[in-house]
Amino acid sequence: MESPVRDALTARLSEYERLTEVGVGRRPAVAVALAAAGSAVTVTDVHPFDVPPELRFVEDDVVAASERADPGPAYHADAVYALNLPPELHRPVRDVAAAVDADFLFTTLGFDAPAVPCDAETLADGAETLYVVACDDRPKGQR
Fold this sequence. Notes:
Layout (H helix, E strand, L loop, with lengths): L3 H10 L4 E5 L6 H8 L3 E6 L10 E4 L2 H5 L12 E4 L7 H10 L3 E4 L12 E5 L4 E6 L10
Helix pairs in contact: 1-2
């Protein structure tokens, strides 16, 4: 199934060669589209899920990962992203991305404001907002 939002997210995220999606759940459509576009994609979730073979799945708790000096190999990517990320996870995922010098990109549940400083990009003719924390924009203490 094609959707303008999925296609716009895929186009934007496919600028990265290696990506990690946090909290994939039962909706791997963007990750699958990224893999089809040539990106290497690892997906994580706190619960085990079956994912298509073109994706690498790692069961992990991103909050626990944010507390480790090295979050783990699943997060070593050019970008760490999350879709429909609840505010209580914005900081932990940002910290994981910072620990591996990756950009952090995310969408919210739609009505939530970002809980971390970031830039906003409008996608799909205004249907989606992608929030971006570029690794170069982080304060030195957070790199």
